[in-house]
Amino acid sequence: MDNNFLAELLFGDVKTTPDEIFAKYPPRTLPEKAAVTRFAPSPTGFMHIGGLYAALVSMLTAKQSGGVFYLRLEDTDKKREVEHGADEIITSLAKYGVIFDEGAAADGEAEKGNYGPYRQSLRRGIYQTFAKELVRQGLAYPCFCSAEELDEIRAKQEAEKADIGYYGEYAKCRSLTIEQIEQNIKAGREFVLRLKSDGSAENKIICRDIIRGKIEMPENITDVVLLKSDGIPTYHYAHAVDDFLMGTTHVIRGDEWISSYPIHEQLFKVSGFKMPLYAHIAPIMKLDGGENRKRKLSKRKDPEASVSFYANAGFPAESVLEYLMTIANSGYEDWRMKNPDADMSEYKFKLEKMPVSGALFDMDKLASVSKDVIAKMSEERLAKEITLWASVHDEKLSAFITASPEKFAESISLWKYNGKKVRKDIAKWSDLSAMFPYLYSNDEITEYEFDERISDSDRREFLNAYIAAYNHDCDSSQWFADVKTIAEPLGFCPDIKAYKASPDGFKGSVADACAILRAAITGRKNSPDLYSIIQLLGKEETVKRLSKAAK
Predict the structure, then answer these.
(1) How many CB atoms lie within 10 A of CB 506?
(2) b/e per residue, 390-412, with b = 16+ CB within 10 A?
(3) Burial class of residue 44 in the structure, from the number of CB atoms within 10 Å of its CB (0-12 exposed, 13-18 middle, 19+ buried)
(4) 5, 215 Cβ separation under 8 angstroms
(5) Nearest to 320 by CA among 39, 41, 55
(6) Is the dihedral of CA 483, 485, 487, 492 positive or negative?
(7) What is the pLDDT of residue 51?
(8) How confident is the model at residue 291 (pLDDT cuts 50, 70, 90)?
(9) Burial of 114 (0-12, 13-18, 19+ CB in 10 A)
(10) pLDDT value, residue 85
(11) Strands 417-418 and 294-296
(12) What is the pLDDT of residues 370-387, one digit of tens each?
C-alpha cells in the first residue's frame, strides 16, 4: 500500500510537519532531576476531593524538585463539558493553595506558559499532524466499521470466548486496500483512525511504577482508536502527544488508569516519544455498611466527595490540606509533631512513600486535624476567615458580625481560650452557630438544660432574686461574690467543701446556682466562661433571657 498516498487522502488539508511542531516545543531547560507534572481534568464543573489530592501531590513533586507544575484541560468531550467548568477548577484549587506555574486559564483570561495551547480542544491540528505521520509510516489506518458492525464483532468474540476488542482477525478494516479506502471516502463514509498494533498476546510488558514498583501486564494487541470520526483524539492518543510536547516527566494519576498503561506505552513507542515516569495513586475510600467494607468516594452518593462540601461546612483550607498530607505520606504526622509551627511546604514529600492501597477518608480524623489547625490561628485571622465564610454560608452569624464586629471579635476569645489554655472545640466554622447559638443568634432559647435535682420553684425563686439584685457593671470576682450573696439565703451553700461534707442540708451549692444562670442564659449545661458571656451579651439581653427563663 502507498502510505504516503493514504496519508494525503486522509489528511490532505494538514500541511504542518512534526518537525515544525517540535521546533515550537523545544525541550525545557530545567535543573537536573527537576520534575514537570500536570493536572489534567475535564472541565465538568465538579472538583472531586481526589482531584485536589492528585493536584496537591503533583504540585509538591514539581515544586520541591525545582520543576514545573501546569494545568491542561482535557476538554475534547463537549458532551461532558460544563459552562465555566474551567473557572470552577482553577478557583477551587486556588482556595487550597494549589497554584499552577503555567497552563490553561479561566474563561476570558490569557494562558501562561510557552507550551500551549493548554486546552486540548485548541490542539486539533497538532494531533492530526502526528496522526498523519503515523499513517505515512504504516502505523495507523482508517476504520469504517459502523456501531452495528462493532456490535457484531463483539457478539462473535463472546460466542467464541475470545478477548473482546478490535484486533487481529476481528480488525475488519485493517486489510482494506487503498482502492477500497478511497471508494469509502468518496462515498462519504465516516471513519475513525486506528493504531495498527504490533502487540502479541504472548508478550508481557513491565510498568515500573514509582508508587507500586514493578507491575507486569500483557502487551496491548488492540487497534485502539487514535482519532474519532470528528477528527478529535481519544484520551489515550492526546495524552501521549501532549505529555511529550509539554515535557511532562511524571504522570501522577489514579490507579484506574493502570490497565491503560500498555496502550500508552505502545503509543509513545510507535510515535518515537520518550515516555514519562508513571505514579498511580490509590483512591480515597470510605466505609460503606457493615463488615468494614470500603469503596471509593462517589460524587453521586457522597457529599464529601466534592471539594465544595468542605468549603460550605467551613473547614479551613489549611485543615483539608493538612489532612490530605497525612494520607499522602505516612511520615507526615511524625514530622508535624516535631515541627508544629513549620509550613507544610517544608516537609520533604516523596511519591515512593504514598500508600498502595486505598486510604480511608476519616471525617473524625479530619475534624481532629482541623481543631489543631484552628487552635493555632490568631484571633485576627480567625475573625477574617469566619467573616468571609459567614457572608456566604451563615446569614445569622454574618448579621451578628456586621452589626457588631467588636462584639464578634470579643466572642472569639470565649471559645478559643479556657483561661490561658487554648481550647480545641471548633473543627469548622459551621460549628460556631451549632455550638454557640446563644452568642450569635437573636433567636430566643426554647429549651433549657436545667439540673433536675433543683426544683422548678427553687430555680424560679433564685432567678427572680438574682434579677432583682443584678449588677452588670462589676468584675468577675465581684460577680461571683454577688451570686454567693444572693444564693445563700435561698438555701445554696456558698462553700463547695462544706456542701460536699453535708449536702442534705442545702438545696445545692453555689456551683448549682451558677448552673441555673448558665442554663437560663445559654440554654446549655456547659459553655465558656459565664461572666464573659454576660458581658458580651450586655445587660439588656442578659436580663431579658433571665426573665424568660424565670417564667
Answers:
(1) 18
(2) beebbeebbebbeeeeebbeebb
(3) middle
(4) no
(5) 55
(6) positive
(7) 93
(8) low
(9) exposed
(10) 76
(11) unpaired
(12) 999 999 999 999 999 999
The C-alpha cell that represents 97 in the structure block: 493553595
What is the CATH T-level fold of the domain 456-550, as seen in this structure? Answer: Arc Repressor Mutant, subunit A (1.10.10)
Beta strands in 311-411 (DSSP E): 359-360
Q: How many CA atoms lie within 13 A of 187 on its CB side?
A: 10
Q: Which cell is 17 given?
A: 510537519
Rounded Cα–Cα distance for residues 485 and 482 (Å): 5
Q: Which of 446, 466, 435, 467 is nearest to 540 (CA)?
A: 467
Average pLDDT value for the chain: 93
Q: Within a 13 Å sphere around the CA of 247, how many CA atoms are in the beta-carbon half? A: 23
Distance in angstroms (rounded) separating the CA atoms of residues 414 and 529: 7
How far is 68 from 65, CA to CA, in rounded Å?
9
Closest CA to 536 of 399, 440, 428: 440
Where do the domains of the chain lie?
4-14+125-281, 300-352+363-375, 377-440, 456-550
Give this prediction's pTM. Answer: 0.89
Confidence band of 46 (pLDDT split at 50, 70, 90): confident
Q: Do the Cβ atoms of 283 and 296 come closer than 8 Å?
A: yes
Place of cell 458581658: 535
Topology at the third CATH level for domain 4-14+125-281: Rossmann fold (3.40.50)
What is the H or E stretch that residue 72 is in? none
* Residue for grid cell 437573636: 442
